[in-house]
Design a protein that fits this description.
The protein has 224 residues and is mostly helical. 75% of the residues lie in helices and 3% in strands. The chain has one domain.
Length: 224
């Protein structure tokens, strides 16, 4: 679970309606603000992922390159099973039974391959070392995943709100990053145009104030 604290923004449907109405006549470039916010969020997640990886390197028993590669094969099969199982359950819940059953058939094949990979991995080390939980870090949400995690645990992870939420955020960030430089240039030009407009308005107010002052001065001289 991510501890993000309370959102500093105001979430109000009435304000949203006002914004949507105002956006029809002016571009507020909030997509750039959103992109920068998501960029910071994902950068923080990736930083935590690297810290977690480093912590595992320091605390877990180091494996040889050959054994580590065999462990990675098991991890990859396990992750694929977890992802497909979560998807199959979601399809079944939405009424797509045939599609769900087809995925379950694929999962059965993956389970066989995973069992074979586990046997190869088990035979590559002493039994005492094999029993130790070998962890890796999820590249999407920075959660820990274990090589001995069962399918249910992995499906809960890959189908969970946190993991799926990070997928949505990363996809949205990629979408917003497309053409962001052009949008930033547009925002800069828009800002310059508005600055010029404000300057012209200020100059016009100054001229009107000077004209009023001059008219009052002339009026006072005539009356005198």
């Amino acid at each position: 679970r991510m501890d993000l604290g309370e959102c500093p923004k105001i979430h109000d449907l009435a304000l949203r309606a006002d914004f949507e109405h105002a956006s029809k006549t002016r571009d507020y470039f909030y997509d750039i603000d959103a992109m920068e916010q998501l960029q910071t969020f994902i950068a923080d997640c990736d930083r935590r992922t690297e810290v977690a990886k480093q912590r595992l390197l320091e605390t877990q028993e180091e494996l040889s390159a050959e054994v580590a590669e065999k462990a990675n094969v098991v991890h990859e099969y396990a992750e694929e099973i977890g992802k497909k199982l979560a998807k199959a359950e979601a399809l079944g819940a939405d009424g797509f039974v045939d599609e769900s059953l087809k995925l379950m058939e694929e999962i059965d094949e993956l389970r066989k391959k995973k069992a074979e990979a586990e046997e190869v991995y088990r035979n590559s080390m002493p039994a005492s070392s094999y029993q130790q939980q070998k962890l890796r870090v999820c590249e999407v949400c920075s959660a820990y995943l274990g090589i001995h995690d069962n399918d249910r645990r992995l499906a809960d992870h890959f189908g969970g709100k946190l993991h799926l939420g990070f997928i949505t955020i990363r996809e949205k960030l990629q979408e917003l990053q497309k053409g962001v430089e052009e949008r930033r240039s547009q925002r800069k030009m828009d800002s310059r145009d508005r600055d010029r407009d404000r300057e012209r308005e200020r100059e016009e107010r100054d001229r009107m104030r000077d004209r009023d002052r001059y008219d009052r001065h002339r009026g006072s001289r005539r009356s005198g």
